[in-house]
Design a protein that fits this description.
Layout: H1 2-31, E1 45-47, E2 57-59, H2 69-73, E3 80-86, E4 91-100, H3 109-113, E5 119-121, E6 136-137, H4 139-143, E7 156-158, H5 162-167
Parallel strand pairs: 1-7
Antiparallel strand pairs: 2-5, 3-4, 4-6
Length: 176
């Protein structure tokens, strides 16, 4: 008879514990009811990237002195710098500069240590392609500046904070 009473007590304790867990999860669900949705409609709406975002690298051919500091500080020796020495003026002349973004880890060391500031990070993050060889950018492709998300009139920009969504008077997602 005694084991039967302890069995009922254990069953009652387990029932109370389960009800408490269900109540806690229900309270968590209710706390999310008043929050705004964080989903964006990607091709038509884009987030504004932060100030220190490390996107595609922009290269200015005229500023580069072919010192190869970017290659030395790169953890994977990624930038390919082709140059020739002009003996009459004793300076290097840059012939070709390329970066393969399929391999790049976007660490930003090349930008940080460049002595002439010919490299900079852009806010461009849409680099997906169907062919990995299209991610190998030469100096011409690296020299193109991307269209700023703020300046693109076809896209509705969204800041990262929920308060900005309230200020923008975002229409509700529920349709009648």
């Amino acid at each position: 008879m005694f084991p039967m009473v302890t069995g009922f007590m254990n069953y009652g304790q387990q029932t109370i514990r389960a009800a408490r867990y269900i109540g806690q999860s229900f309270m968590t669900t209710l706390s999310h009811v008043n929050r705004l949705p964080v989903t964006i409609q990607y091709p038509y709406e884009k987030l504004i990237t932060s100030e220190r975002f490390r996107g595609r690298i922009h290269f200015e051919f005229d500023k580069c002195i072919a010192c190869e500091v970017c290659v030395r500080v790169c953890p994977i020796d990624l930038p390919v710098v082709d140059w020739e020495l002009e003996t009459n003026i004793r300076k290097k002349r840059l012939l070709n500069y390329s970066i393969d973004f399929g391999i790049c880890i976007f660490c930003g060391n090349c930008v940080e240590y460049c002595p002439t500031n010919c490299l900079s990070m852009t806010e461009e993050y849409e680099l997906s392609t169907y062919n990995r060889h299209e991610l190998n950018y030469n100096q011409i492709a690296l020299g193109r500046l991307p269209i700023s998300v703020i300046d693109d009139y076809t896209i509705r920009t969204i800041l990262n904070s929920p308060q900005s969504l309230i200020k923008m008077d975002k229409p509700p997602l529920i349709k009648d």
